[in-house]
Amino acid sequence: MVSKRLFCYLKDGRPVHCYKITNNVGEYVEVLDYGASIHAIVVGDRNGALEDVALGAEPDTLERCTYIGGTIGRCANRIAYGRYTLDGKTYQLEQNKFGHFLHGASGNYANKLFTGEMFPEENRVVMRLYDTGEGGFDCCVYAAFWFSFDDSGMLSLTLEMEGEGATILNPTNHTYFNLSGGSDARDHTLWIDSEYRVSRGEMGLPNGGSISVLNSPADFTKERTIREAMLDRQSGYFTKDTPSYDEFYLLDGRKFRHAATLGYPKNGRVMRVYTDMPCLVLFAGGDRKPETGKNGKTYEGYCAVCLETGFVPNAVNCPQYDSPVFQRGQRLVAHTVYQFSAE
Q: Among 86, 103, 317, 327, which has the minimal tally of Cβ within 10 Å of its Cβ?
């Protein structure tokens, strides 16, 4: 079942709507047309108790939240110095983060109002946007982001984009997950099907290489808690007093596969991540500044975990990685599934 309700009005008066996709066991997902954002994921635990496992914003904080649940585009993460060369021409994008381009800059899709459409018979919705090239890009892009949710707890995202010229297409969804409903996210277990992370140079920018994660704090090839992994302070991996992850894991090309599993043993909730994208970003920061979220909760510190799929950040400048460049008429179709269950 799919339903639609008014969520709020933006400061400029435009209405924001919330689309609710409910399965036959009473679980549901809510998607906002502002930012094509996943606003809520309400799923059961091993005792059948339903709880929201996604961070989100209240109507009065929506326009100042930090990417909570938003679908990022046209290009997620960083491009070094906002520059890249395509077909012999050098492009200069906006430099909105320490001299680099980040998350689409002023054109970030997470801050755009999409046009939503419901498909109740298929239990899915689509969010459409015509991107006019904000952020420094020189061609327009059509985007259609599909969200569905079924009785097996499978939240499916299909991100489709096509440019009117050659351009970078690298969207991702920036949902923050907490399967406990609010406890310390370090107590989640994590498994990632990757033995290699992206090597990084200045300002943490990918530089074309790879590094083995085996026997390091970034090693999740065997399931363990995030807290356990963070206890390894001997290797020099963590450079801050508050250990955090902002790591880019290399997956095996663009074949659809099981890439990661996040779990919370205390209530049995499990989230399996499947994708056909070549990179998985793990973000679990302990230095998150306090931010007001849903139901009066304050989000701070280790409040959640991001598992974002896409191309490697800065891949447009690193030919060693799968390319995020698409020619005119070439369509990107990216599939990611977050499947929720209880054990």
A: 327
> Smallest Cα–Cα separation from 211: which of 167, 248, 186?
248
Pairing of strands 298-299, 15-22: unpaired
Amino acid identity of residue 201, one-letter, is G
CB 284 within 8 A of CB 244: yes
| C-alpha dihedral sign at 93, 314, 71, 286 | negative
Q: Encode pLDDT of 204-238 as tens digits.
A: 899 999 999 999 999 999 999 999 999 987 778 88
Q: Which of 227, 159, 142, 215 is nearest to 190 (CA)?
A: 227
The residues with which 268 forms a beta bridge, in sequence order, are: none
Closest-CA residue to 18 (of 85, 69, 53): 69
* Cα(124)–Cα(71) distance, integer angstroms: 16
Report the helix count and the strand count for the chain, using DSSP H and E.
1, 29
Tell me how far apart the alpha carbons of residues 188 and 233 are, in angstroms, rounded to a whole number: 19
H or E element, residue 83: strand 83-86
For the chain, the distance separating the N- and C-terminal CA atoms, rounded to the nearest angstrom, is 26
pLDDT one-digit tens code per residue, 3-35: 999 999 999 999 999 999 999 999 999 999 999
Query: Which domain does 274 fall in, by range?
Result: 2-342
**Rounded distance, CA 318 to CA 242, Å?**
30
128 strand-pairing partners? 115, 144
Cis before 74? omega within 30:
yes
The helix (run of H) or strand (run of E) holding residue 123 is: none
Task: Residue 82: give its domain's CATH number.
Answer: 2.70.98.10
The count of domains in the chain is 1
